[in-house]
Structure formats: C-alpha cells, structure tokens
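Quick one: structure tokens for this chain, please?
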Amino acid sequence: MDKKIILLGLNHRSAPVEVRERYALTNVQDFEQGLLKDCRVRECLALSTCNRVEILAVSDHPGDLAAEVLAYWAKTCGGDPAALAPHTYVHEDLEAVGHVFRVAASLDSMVMGEPQILGQLKAAYRAAVEKGAARVIVNRLLHKSFSVAKRVRTETAIASSAVSISFAAVELARKIFGGLSGKTALLIGAGEMAELAATHLLSNGIERLLIANRTLSRAQDLAKTMRGEAVAFDQLFERLPEADIVISSTGSPTAIIRARDMKGVLKARKHAPMFFIDIAVPRDIDPDINSLDNVYLYDIDDLKEVVEGNLAQRREEAVKAQDIVAAETETFARWLKSLDLQPTIVDLLSRAEDIGRRELARTLRRIGPVDEDTRKALETLVLSVGRKILHDPVCYLKRRGQEETAERFLDQTRRLFNLDSENVPEDAHSDRKRQEQDEEDLRDEDTCPPLE
C-alpha cells in the first residue's frame, strides 16, 4: 500500500510577515474540503497561525503532490504559485512525520519550548476530524504527535525556564516572594509587554492587578480583559503603596519613578518590601531607587541575562528532544509499513503462535513431565487452534486488501490485536474522542461487520 505523505508550509523563518498574512488560511475547513475534492488527496490537515501555515496531505498517487497542493493553496488565497513557492518548504514521507513531531513538541517554534503551538495543532486536528478530512494515517500521526509532545515535556526540561522578558519578570517576582498568592501587582503601561506580564501574573495566582496608563481607556480595556482595575495615570503615586510588585513598560522618554518619589510611598506601606521590574527602553524607573531599604529593582538587562541563560538550557534540552523525535519517527515508519497486507497477516499469525507456545509452556509446568510425542501433539493442537481461529479474519483481510479503504481494516486489526505492542493505559477506552473517531473510520462501510 504505497502512500505519499507531504507537508508543505511556510513559517516565521521562511517568510516575512506580509507573506504569512497574504497566504494565511481564513477558513481552514473549507480549504481542506476543497483540497480533498480538487486535488489527488485522500486525507489532509491544515494549520494556520500567525507564525506558520502548514498543510499535511496523504495521497495514493505518484507525481508531484507538493506542486499540486501549492497551486491550490495559492489559488485559494488569490495569489501566484511562483510568488509563494520561494517562501515555502516541503517535507515528504518520514521527513514530514518528523516535522509534525517537532512542531507538536515546540522544537520548531519561534520561542522553543512554548506550549501554544500544541493547543493550536489539537484544535486544527479536531476541526479536520469533524469534517472527515483526517482519516487513518493523519489520525495516527496526530495522536502520535501529541504523545511525542508529552514525552518531550516530561522527559526533558525544555519548557521549564522563562524565555520571554515578561515571563522572566513574573518568574523573578514569584521566586522573591515565594509565590504570588495574596499579592498585588501594578502594571504601568498597557502595551503588549504589559499584557503578556498580566497573563503570566494571573496564571501564577496574583490576587489583585492594577493597570495604570496615560490613556485611561486603554488601561480600562486591558483591565476588563484581565479582571484587573484601571488606574488613572495622575493617581499613580496615590495607588503605588498598594502594590507589592510593579512592572513598568511605558514609552516615556524619561524616568517616571525616582527615589525622591518613593519616600511617601514606603511610609504608607510601613516599609514593606517592594519589587520593581523595569522592562522599558528607555528606562521608566531611575536606578537610584535601589539605594532605598526594602526596594528591589531589576531592569531589562538583568532579565535578558536570565532569558539568555534559559535559552541556552533549552537548546541543550532540545538535543534530548530530537532523540525522542527520531525514535518515535522510526516507530511510526514501522506502523506505516505494516499497513501493507502481508506484514499484518504475518504479525497476526506470529502473535497467535507466541501466545499458544507461552500458554502451552505454562500448562506443561503445571501438569508435570510428558513424553516428547505428547508434547509435540499438544503443540500441534495449540498452534492449529490459533490458525483456525484466525482463518476467517485473515480471509477477510485478504478480500479487503485490494480495496481503496484497506488501510482502515489493517489499522483496526493491528490495534485490536495490539500487533505494534503499544502500551495501552488503563483508561484508554474511556477516551470518547478516540472511540468516536474509530466509529467514524468505519461508518461509511455498509458491508463491513463491526470490529468492536
């Protein structure tokens, strides 16, 4: 069963933002349906985010599948294939499989180790399943990619350290205070950096979030989104005593907080510790406040050192992650090969023989010594029973083996008899998504008897 797998895409490294915008897929599900209808594609999945567009396609036909998909992609976006092609990359067969694994594990992301891409990939997969675009090979590939991502997260430290300035700032605050529960944070500025910081503060359990900005409406918008409280800029020093943590990221050309401004603030706080993080360039907070007792100031250079160190650590962990990807790609390659009829029949008969011989050995240990003729007769009986039980399933597979949907039945057979020796968790059969997909795989085969 000769299947062609291709992955065609562009990302933040291969294409500038204007190209990514030009060829983003605004309706992924319609695109997938059109690809199945107009191209020689049997199953597919499309992923479109701000940093990448990738199209995974499976076909039975030889030829330049990537060029066909590229032309359809360009046509869908009202563009020219010749203009799109220089910004794209193509992976075929096992290279495509390995790339999907790397994407799921966030080894191909702009910020390596960040988890957002896995959620986006899962959402794209659910959409493809709902419309019937994802079938046997895409199903197995995406499920395996999710388990690869889990292995990478649990067996490496690739996502254990902060690699964005905003995340590093919040992590530093959390470590200094031993946790953010019961603490109040004040964000000065309401731009992208402040929004990211607010997200990390909330996910780390901050109790109160104050947001001050020169344009009050912007502070109010962000406060509404982040369940915080907007503060008018001219009230900044009145509200500053409430804050345990201050993160400042305005566009001011001069410092907005100096040591002389802090005397009344510290007195109002009864000199309780305050933690300042200045992630603005130019700096918002004059370094002279570091001279005050119970005031701790970190600027963007301090945080960059943390981030650079953590990036280096992630790069080291990425080597371990790549080893996991390579091993899982080989496992997937064996499964792909098994979708040919003969290997599955051989594996099925071998599994029956192995079980028969193990059970015979257990029985002989229990009943005690027997002569050689009796042992051979018992072995012949056990193996014959196994072959006769499998005779009808094997004949069924041979009849189905020449059909267009043969890989469905081969895949179901391998899963029913666990021919790939997968470790199946105890709660595997409670996964409704997988069960529903199994049913979907067989739903349109009226003549197929139920396998479950």
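Residues 4-160 form a domain with the Beta Polymerase; domain 2 fold (CATH 3.30.460.30).
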